[in-house]
Amino acid sequence: MRKQRIIRTVIVVMCGIISFETASCLTSVPEQSETTIETTAGNPYQEKSDVEIADESAGIVLTADVNSEQVMKLTIKNNTAKHLGYGDLYNLEYAYECEWYKVPYLPNIAFPMVLYEVDPGKEKTIEIVIGWSHGVLPPGHYRIVKEVTLAYTFGDARNPRDDDEYIVAAEFDI
Predict the structure, then answer these.
(1) What is this structure's pTM?
(2) What is the distance between the terminal CA atoms of the chain, rounded to a whole angstrom?
(3) Which CATH number do you get for residue 105?
(4) Tens of pLDDT along 112-138?
(5) Most buried residue among 18, 52, 69, 168 by CB atoms closer than 10 A?
(6) How many structural domains comprise the chain?
(7) Rg, Å, the chain Cα set
(8) pLDDT > 70: percent of the chain
(9) Distance, C-alpha 48 to centroid of its chain
């Protein structure tokens, strides 16, 4: 009998300690300040994009086709007399109420530093697995954003001021 009373007392004391700790955790949650970024209902992303996209008059056309498994076929078409250079790095943005929002990368994502070329008047299609860098995206309207460079030649002792740098994009739906 005495043994059961001791066990009950220990259980009551442990429950009291757990309840106290839980209550103290709840009261230490900081209140939202006016500077906190709030997500708009229906928009899963917070940070607005401030990127200026080059128009098609630059001679560079991107098209994106995404399948149901969120694998993208991205075609880069070079309609100029210069060589087009690009790397693996890309950004994704989400359209919400006529504004573009940055889609954040998953943690610990890194892109190799390589240079790919598209000759004048040619195009290349590359495959991008979206989930690798951004996870599974919710349904919506998106765009892929890439930085590209146009130059007469790559890999020589040219003056980098002769290069033209552009930010281009292709829109797609999921």
Answers:
(1) 0.71
(2) 66
(3) 2.60.40
(4) 999 999 999 999 999 999 999 999 999
(5) 168
(6) 2
(7) 26
(8) 70
(9) 12
